[in-house]
Amino acid sequence: MTNINFSFNKKITIALILWQVISSNAFSHDGEDHGGSVTLAPGLPECQILAATRLFDGVNFPQDNMAVLIEGDKIKRIGALTELSGSCANQINLGDATILPGFIESHAHITFQSVNKNAVLEHGVTTVQDTGGPLQAKEGGDGTLRLLSAGPIIQAAGGYPLNVFGGGDGGYDKIGIPVTSTTEADKVVADLIAGGATAIKMALEPGGETGAPWMQPHDGVPVPETPWPMLSQDIANAIVAKAHALGKRVLVHAGENTGFERALNAGVDEFAHIPCGEIREDLLQRAVDQGVTFVTTIDTLAACVDTATGKGIHSNTMSLASKGAKFIYGSEIGHDNVPWGINGEELHMILHLTSGESIDFTDVVNVIKSATSKAGEHLGLAPLGTLVAGAPADVIAVKGNPFQKFKLLEYPQLVISGGRTIVNKFINQSSPASIECFLTWAEGKYPELLSPAGQTTVVSSLYSYRYYPATQVYAGISSADNHVYFMKQADGLLRSEGPLANWLPLSGCQ
User: Fold this and answer.
1) pLDDT (0 to 100) of residue 41
2) Which of 105, 139, 145, 230 could bridge to 117 as Cys pair (CB 3.0-4.6 Å)?
3) 74 against 37, higher pLDDT
4) Which residues partner with 70 through β-bridges?
5) Cis peptide before 222 (omega within 30 of 0)
6) Are residues 84 and 113 in the same domain?
7) 317 and 404 share a domain?
């Protein structure tokens, strides 16, 4: 390192130490950089090949010794590594691992519960359907969590969910929005869709189900006396008709027979939960006949069992499965007892409650499909959730075989969103060779910022960095989070330029 005096060296050392504290706050806001605009911007690798012992494309049974070719932000093709290797020099063989599509979470409350979207993405969920919370436009899929918002839940005045979770009179920035007429319902549906809602959710919930989370006090506030006000059949019908006329699906929260039947009469597309209370067999059969899809959330609602009868969410699930119901995976991220990412226990419960008297490998594969290809199809975003040609390059990989142990999926060693690498623990990102290679590449890529080239790399307790005296710029990598950092001496603002794992495929240093 050259041309730097002791006083400034001390200054930068203090700044770097302080950044540890600052960055923890920044990451709690999904990694937003409040210190100024990002100066460096990693593009997409022109191509990359991932190979592993197993590959699941979201559609077919897992295949042995296969690879996936990614070009930019899309899947190009899958095949044996020997077939693909001539198409791209940027290759990683993951060894005894399994490559899969990024998972789709079909029931979450990311916005309402202020869940860290980066944490969800880093744990293998690349797409989320946000089903109840402040309305926002569709976002992500390009290195950030793809978020599909349903906005606030349309509800009866004085009813669920505002009566349990708060939010006053409700609104487009709350968890619920009340309507009292079909005219008002039409307007709210239209407003939600105009504001970016990718689906509409309504509540038909009078309360009272044994073991339901909404029957527990929240923030010390007692549960309101049941039955709760519920949307009329006419209003429910109007909500579904308006949403369908505008090309959107309708989800419903319904936990017992009255709301369940009203939802079926209205023609809903999706039950956001398998109901908590015991549902009549004729209604369950009718739901299957109408082609309604059920989001599971079994782990979250596992206590929904009537102690007197032993019936509830588990018996409903088994009965629906025996009738041929359609299920998609949902874990209700944002609830206080489930992971912020893939939930192995949810997958386990789906398998054991939907497979009948015996479990075979087809059942196991169908469970993973419920969180990948089947979910993508239901959201109307196919081929999202697959690794077929043209699909978004949302890819995860885990060491070992998750078809033998679902728990492995909770800790993916590789996560790619839209072709951008978010996590890659298959390579030693912080190795001196990787860092030297990357910084040297960056000098050639950004000569107007990193000049003159060929500066010595300095290693501190947390950072490996180079100082460029001509441009008075620092560039380096933090061992604390493996992010690339950049700082101009003139303003002293330390900026995160994202994970080194995102830069390595682009630089050819992996």
Assistant:
1) 58
2) 145
3) 74
4) 48, 75
5) no
6) no
7) no
The β-bridge partners of 130 are 108, 149
Query: Do 230 and 340 share a domain, yes or no?
Result: yes
**What counts of helices (H) and strands (E) characterise the chain?**
14, 23
439 and 483 part of one domain? yes
348 & 465 share domain = no
Question: How many other C-beta atoms lie within 10 A of the C-beta of residue 481?
Answer: 16
Q: 506: exposed, middle or buried (C-beta count within 10 Å: 0-12, 13-18, 19+)?
A: buried
Rounded CA separation 55/63 (Å)? 5
Which residue did the predictor score with more confidence, 357 or 94?
Answer: 94
Within this chain, do residues 234 and 170 fall inside the same structural domain, yes or no?
A: yes
Number of domains composing the chain: 3
Q: 270-271 and 249-253: which strand pairing?
A: parallel
Per residue in 228-269, pLDDT (tens digit) is 999 999 999 999 999 999 999 999 999 999 999 999 999 999
Quick check: 22 pLDDT over 70?
A: no
Kindly indicate the confidence band of residue 431, based on its pLDDT and cuts at 50, 70 and 90.
confident
Three-state DSSP at 93 gives: strand
For residue 120, being part of any structural domain is answered with yes
Q: Name the nearest CA neighbour of 504 among 432, 443, 448, 424.
A: 424
Of the chain, the percentage scoring pLDDT greater than 70 comes to 92
| C-alpha to C-alpha distance for 211 and 205, rounded to whole angstroms | 15
**Beta-bridge partners for 101:** 395
Q: For residue 315, tell me if it sits in a domain.
A: yes
Residue 16 lies in a domain: no
The neighbouring-strand residues paired with 253 are: 203
What is the distance between the alpha carbons of residues 358 and 177, in angstroms, rounded to a whole number?
A: 44
Phi, psi (deg, nearest 5) at residue 122: -65, -20
Same domain? 363 vs 225: yes
Residue 76: its H or E element: strand 74-79
Q: How many CB atoms lie within 10 A of CB 306?
A: 15
Q: Residue 17: pLDDT above 70? A: no
Q: Classify strands 463-468 and 458-459 as parallel, antiparallel or unpaired.
A: antiparallel
Q: Is 138 left (phi over 0), alpha (psi -120 to 50) or beta?
A: beta
pLDDT on residue 15: 44
Six-digit token pair at 100? 């899969």
Give the domain range for residue 89: 43-101+385-426
List for the chain the helix, strand, coil content (%; round to 5).
30, 25, 45
CA separation (Å) from 105 to 85, 126, 214, 375, 438?
33, 8, 21, 8, 34
Sign of the CA dihedral running 491, 492, 498, 503: positive
Looking at the structure, tell me whether residues 55 and 149 fall in a common domain: no
Does residue 111 lie within any of the structural domains?
yes
